Amino acid sequence: MTLFRAEGLTVSFSRAGERAVLFENAALSLEEAAVYDLVGPSGSGKSTLLRACARMIERDGGALYLNGAPSDAVALTKWRRQVCLVPQKPSLVSGTVRDNLVLPWTLKVHAGERPPSDSELANLLDRAALGDVELGRDVSQLSGGQLARVALLRAFATKPPVLLLDEVDAALDPDSARAIGRLTRLLVGENMTCLRIRHRAADGFAAGTFELKDGALSYRENPSQAAIGGSAPGRTGSARQSAPVAAGREGGLR
């Protein structure tokens, strides 16, 4: 089942007083219970593509759908809660592991919702091979790899249907990066999908790979993972088409 779909995405920026297109008419679909990689040269617009999908920047054109519902029908705050973007360097607050895992429930966007119990949080830590990390431990005592897993678990704990990861393993050693990949594949299950930016060699956890290059988005499937993830081929996006685009006005540039 397709959880997330983007069609005709176009994003440009102003350079020397002229419009420069970063990517145009890009399209993709993400299936339930599948992890996808997004690769491409530095500066090709990968992070911008994720931000556009999360409605964190304006787009020149294109449409976004979550479970078949168009983005225009979903309030911006609700969309960002359901299409969760984890930045390359997610910030952890001073305090304990518990403080950081329940941080989303201290924010207005989750007002009135019940945070996970300690037993639920402990179960998450166990699944991330962090069973020896106490909820009451200060995060200043964690290694870089442990910090990255705690940050990822915090996003998973909110149970977003779509998880967008902006190269969260960039600063990690190979073993820690593979642990992050394994954890992502383990936790992305029913009613969830994930698109992650990577510059590392394929780790075998992705159902397929989108490549953003020269303004065009292409897709190739990994057959061995498609069966695990239950994914269908992702749609490819073309670049520089002459079809008119409608302006998207959802959220200012951040």
From TrEMBL:
Q: Where is the signal peptide?
A: none
Protein name, UniProt field = ABC transporter ATP-binding protein
Give the molecular function GO annotations.
ATP binding
ABC transporter domain mapped to chain residues: 4-239
Which organism encodes this protein? Raoultibacter timonensis
Outline the segment boundaries, as ranges, of region: Disordered: 223-254
UniProt entry tagged with the keyword NAD: no
Q: What SMART domains does the entry give? A: AAA
Entry's Pfam families?
Answer: ABC_tran
Q: What UniProt keywords apply to this chain's record, in alphabetical order?
A: ATP-binding, Nucleotide-binding, Translocase, Transport
